[in-house]
Amino acid sequence: MITSTWVKRAIGPVVLAAAMLVAGSAAGAAASGGRNSAGGVDPAITPYVHWGWVNVTTTTLGVYTPAAINRGNSAGSLNVVNHYSTGSYTVTFRGIGDEGGVPHVSVIGSPTRWCGIGLFGKSGTREFVDVECYDATGTHAEAKFTVSFLSTNYGPNRLGYLWHHDPSNDYDVFDAHSHNNAGGPNHVTRTAAGTYTVTFPNLGTATGDVQVTPYFGGVFASSGPAPAGIQVVDCTVASWSASSGDLDVKVRCFNTNGLPEDTYFTVTFMEDQGLKGPDSGRVAYLWASRAGSPSYTPPANRRFSHPGGSIQVTREGFGKYTVTLGAMGSGGTVKVTAYASTPVRCIIKSIRTTGSPQKIKIRCYSYGFDPANTRFTLAYQR
User: How far apart are alpha carbons 100 and 83 in whole angstroms?
Assistant: First the structure.
């Protein structure tokens, strides 16, 4: 399929997307056909889970292996970061190359940076994820961020994800970048500019956690052909709920002016597990449901921690939150998504790297970079 990061950049996002769809369609069909309605896996196929994560905490150009506290890999292999030009990075997850799966990205530190997925794909046993970071003008800019990747063909608990990469207003997602452990196919409906409903059939529930990440490898305008340049965007989760046995996730996306903007994105729903999928390990998620409360425990049906422990959200000031994970020690990675139907953003201020329990600081802003109280969803893994 894709043989090198150079090839990925050279062929461009449209050709890459087509190549990935063709190469991944057979694998996707086989995986979808192998799942059963109970969320298990057909004995005829071999179950697998591929996951990896990296915290990019330096803006120095070059190729390097992050410190052990800033990386994880289901194959036990090293992850490598190639910061090859301003605002552009390739993260290599060795040993977990996969025809399918989806990545997620969150910004660390600065509200004036927008980071999203560039191109991603398999090369041999390696998974490559390009991350592109910009300032509000759409100019590449240095940034710090977290990036994670997950691909699986089964799951004992409710799990669904997809890569939205088709400008159609209403379509089924059949390729290998779409997973539903209760069957499928998953579905995307565009109802207005930057406004989408993602439907995961047979996963209907009001529980769990949802994460969304914009995909900058192929962005299309609200009307007309794809623009010549990148439209820098971010996306929120507006809601998720059960509907006739299915799960409907509402996604809203906005450009840097705070206006609704059509874009591609990845979205993951998980219940009683984390961004490691069926590999539990140390994972947690929560819905920070009370934007103005000084301190509280998130709703029981929208928080989870393995191997247990308390979860607490504390508001330290306007738009300033600390999430405490009682059973988790230092290190690990985080994905955060604002929960709103209006243009607000949440980023990671810090992830505790020494001591315990784990304390994660989150900062939320309006698109004018003013602090903003808002709800958000958060997923942690180590």
Answer: 24
Confidence class for position 230, pLDDT limits 50, 70, 90: low
Phi, psi of 163 (to 5 degrees): -110, 110
Residue labelled with tokens 């956690």: 209
Peptide bond into 43 cis (omega under 30): no
DSSP character at residue 140: B
CB 106 within 8 A of CB 347: yes
**286 contacts: CB under 8 Å, gap ≥ 6:** 209, 298, 302, 303, 304, 311, 313, 323, 377, 378
β-pairing, 358-366 with 320-325? antiparallel
Residue type, 12: G
| Cα 360 from Cα 234, distance rounded (Å) | 21
Q: Where are the alpha helices (DSSP H) in 117-197?
A: none
Yes or no: say if 227 and 167 are a contact pair by the CB < 8 Å rule: no
CA 261 to the chain's CA centroid: 19
Report, as an integer, the average pLDDT of 272-278.
96
Strand order in the sheet with 264-270: 62-64, 79-85, 88-94, 126-134, 114-123, 209-215, 264-270, 159-164, 179-180
Task: Supply the pTM of this predicted model.
Answer: 0.89
Distance CA 253, CA 375 (A): 16
Predicted confidence (pLDDT) per residue in 171-181, tens digit: 999 999 999 99
Pairing of strands 126-134, 114-123: antiparallel
Q: Which residue has the tokens 């046993």?
A: 125
CA 298 to chain centre: 21
The CA distances from residue 338 to 78, 227, 368, in Å, are: 31, 26, 15
Are the C-beta atoms of residues 289 and 299 closer than 8 Å to each other?
A: yes
Three-state DSSP at 302 gives helix
> Residue 241: in which H helix or E strand, if any?
strand 233-243
Residue type at 160 in one-letter notation: G
**Tokens for 297?**
């425990």
The answer, yes or no, to whether residue 96 has pLDDT greater than 50, is: yes
Mean pLDDT computed over every residue of the chain: 87
pLDDT tens readout for residues 107-117: 999 999 999 99
Count of beta carbons in the 10 Å neighbourhood of residue 109: 16
